[in-house]
Amino acid sequence: MQETTSAVDDDLLELLDDPEHNEHEHRPQNRPWRILIVDDDGDVHKATELAMQGLTVEGQPLVFLHASSAAQARQVLGTEEDLAVVLLDVVMESEDAGLQLVRHIRDERRMNAVRIVLRTGQPGYAPEIETVQAYDINDYKTKSELTRTRLYTVLTAAVRSYRQICALEANRRGLEMIVESSTSLSRMRGLSRFAEGVVTQLCALLGILPEGLVCAQVSNDTQGEVRIVAAAGQYSGLIDRPLAQVKIPAVRERLERCLREQKNLYDDGTCLYFGMGPGRAMAALVDVGRELDELDQQLLRAFCSNIAVGFENVVLYSQLLDQAYNDPLLRLPNRNRFVELLDKNLKDPSGVTLALIDIDDFSDINDAFGHHFGDQVLQAVVHRLAEVLGLNTAMARVGADTFGVLGEHGKVCPETVQAVFTEPFMVAGERLQLSATTGLVRLGESTAVGSELLLDAQIALKRAKQQQRGSSQYFSAAMGSDARERFKLLKGLRTGFEESQLFVVYQPQVELESRRVIGAEALLRWRTTDGRFIPPDQFIPLAEQSGLIIPIGEFVVRTACQQLAKMRALGHDSFRMAVNISMAQFRHPGFIDTLARALKDAGVEGQHIELEITESMAMEDADLVLRVLADIKQLGFSVAIDDFGTGFSSLSQLRQLQVDRLKIDRAFVQEAQSSTAGSTIAQMVINLGRGLGLTVIAEGIETEEQRQYLIGLGCHEGQGWLFAKPMPAEDLQAWMKR
C-alpha cells in the first residue's frame, strides 16, 4: 500500500513538473522562484528544503529563504521584493504571530501578489474556516499532511497563481503607462516632437534606455518617400534623412519591411507599425536587447493602436497648421504668418520697408485664360520677385493677387518693384506684359506693428491705385488719419442707422412756368446724437462701398412710399415721389422684390413714384440696367436720369433706356447765366430731352432769374431753394396746405 502511494506520488510529481508549453511566463529565463519559510522549528526548514531538492516549478528552480520568527521574517520582507510564496507557521513567538505577519504582509507591505500558505502543528489555535475567512491567505495545511508530493503540489499551485498575478499586474502597469503616454503625447504638437515622445515612451514601457528610430511615410505629399522624423541614441544623426539614404542595411531593410507588410516584427529585433489611414504610416525600430514575451507583445499591440490615433491627429494638425499659415499654391507664408512676422519677429525696424505689391487687372487674366493659367502667372511673378529681391527679403501672399515683402530700404523700393515688371513674363508659351501697383511703409517712421502695419500699407496701396495703375505710394500720417476718420464715420453710420439717427426729408418739385407743385424728392439726412449733420456726400459713398446702402436704401424707399400714401390721403392725388437709387441696390438680387413689398405695404401704386439713377450708372453695365429697368417699368415706376451732363452718355444707348426724365445737374444751372459753356450744356440737355420726348427737370434753382432763363431754354420742371428747402414730412404737409 505504501509502495502504491509512493508510485502515485512520483507520477504526480512528473505530471506537475512538466511545463505547460502554451504558456509564456513574464520573467527572465532561469530566474528561480524565491520561497520564504517562516517557522520556529529548525527541522521544518531542513525537511522542507530537502523534500524539494532538485525539483523545478514551471521549468525554474526553487530557492529557499529562512526566518525563525515573525520578527526575523519582517526583516527579510524589508529587503526581498520578488517573493513568490511564504510558507508560514501560525504559532511562533506568540499564538497568533503568524496571523499578525499575514496582516503585515498584506496591509503594511502591500505585497498582494505573494502567495501565503499557513502551516500549523496545532490546528486548535487557528481554526481553518475562521482563519481563511478572516485572513488573506491562499492555503491552510497541517504539517502532518504535507508529504513531499503534497508540498510540491501546494507550491506548484501557489507559484502558478503568483505568476498569473504578476502577469496581470504587469499588464495593468503597461496599460497605465500606455494611457499616461497617450495623455503626455497628446500635448505635443509637431510630427518630429511627437515621434521623439513615442520613442521615449516606448522605451519606458519596455524598461530600456531610449535607443530607437522612427520614420514617417506620407505618400500624398512626398510621392511615397519615407523620411526619418525622429531618432535617439546611436541613430540620432539620421534625423530628417530619406530612409533610402540610411547606410545601415539592417535598419533600412527592417523599417522598409515593417512598412511594406504593415505589421509589427519581433524576429531579429523589434520594429513596430503604426497605421494611420490610406497612404500614411509610421514605423519605429527599437533596440530592446531581448526576445519579447507574449505579454510584451500584447502591450505593444495596444500601444501601437493607441498611439497610431495620436500620430494621425498630429499629421492632421500639421496639415491644418500648414494651411493656416502657408499658401499651398505658391509655398509662401500667407497673411496670418506675415502678420506674425511683423508683430513678433521683427526686432529692429530701422532701415526696413514693408511693401504691398498688387498685380494690376489680374482678374482679367483669369477671365481671359482661366484660373489654371492665372496660377502659373502668380508662380512666375513669385519666381522673379525672389530673383530680384534676394534671399534677405521676406515675402508672403497676403491676397489673391497681392504680395507682401519686407526688407531693406534699398531692396524694397518703387524702383526695384518696377524692375520686376519691366520685362514681359513667359507663361505657358504666352508673352505677358504685367504691371503692379505698390503701397509702401517705412517701418522706422511708423509706430504701428503687426496688422496695423499691413493696414497702413493697404491705405498707401489704395492711394496709389487712385492716382495711377502701376504707380507706387509711400504711407504718410495724413493718409492714416483720413482712412481712420472714414472708418470712424462708417462705424458711426452703422450705429446711427441702428439707432434711427437717419431720416428722410422732402424737397418739392414744381412746374417752372406755373410753379404748381407736382411732387417731391426724398432725400436722406443723418443727424448725430450731438446734433451735428453729416453731409450726404460724405456718408452715402461709404454706405455704398460697405454694402450698408442696401438696408438704408430699403428704408428710404419704404419711408417715401408711406409718405406718398399720406399725401394722397390729404387730397394730393397727382403728387409724385422721387427716390434716388444706387448701383449697389440695382445689382442686389432682391431689389425688385423690395420695391414690390414697399408698394404693397404702403398701399400705393408705382406710377406715382419715380426712381432716379445717375448717368454714370446708366452707362456702367448696360445689360444689367436695361434688364432691371424693364422690371421696374413692370411695377409702374417712372425713371429719371439724375446729374445728366456730368457723365459720358452714348446717345444710342440712351435711346434704348426706358426713362421718362432727364435731370440737369445743379452745376450747369449755376453756370447757365455766368458762362457760355454752362449755358451751352444746359441748352443741349434740354434740347436732347425734348428731342427724345422726355421731360427735363433742373435742380439747384435758387433765383427767379435762373427760373426765367430755364423757362426760356424750354425746361419743364425744377426744384431748389427758390421754391422750398428740403423739409421733414410734417413741414411738407403744412407747406402744401399753404
UniProtKB/TrEMBL annotation:
InterPro entries: CheY-like_superfamily, Cyclic-di-GMP_PDE-like, DUF3369, EAL_dom, EAL_sf, GGDEF_dom, Nucleotide_cyclase, Rev_trsase/Diguanyl_cyclase
Limits of the Response regulatory domain: 34-158
Residues with the 4-aspartylphosphate modification: D89
Segments forming domain GGDEF: 350-477
SUPFAM superfamilies: CheY-like (SSF52172), EAL domain-like (SSF141868), Nucleotide cyclase (SSF55073)
Domain EAL: from-to ranges: 486-738
Signal peptide as annotated in the record: none
Protein name as annotated: Bifunctional diguanylate cyclase/phosphodiesterase
Keyword list, A-Z: Phosphoprotein
Transmembrane domains' residue ranges: none
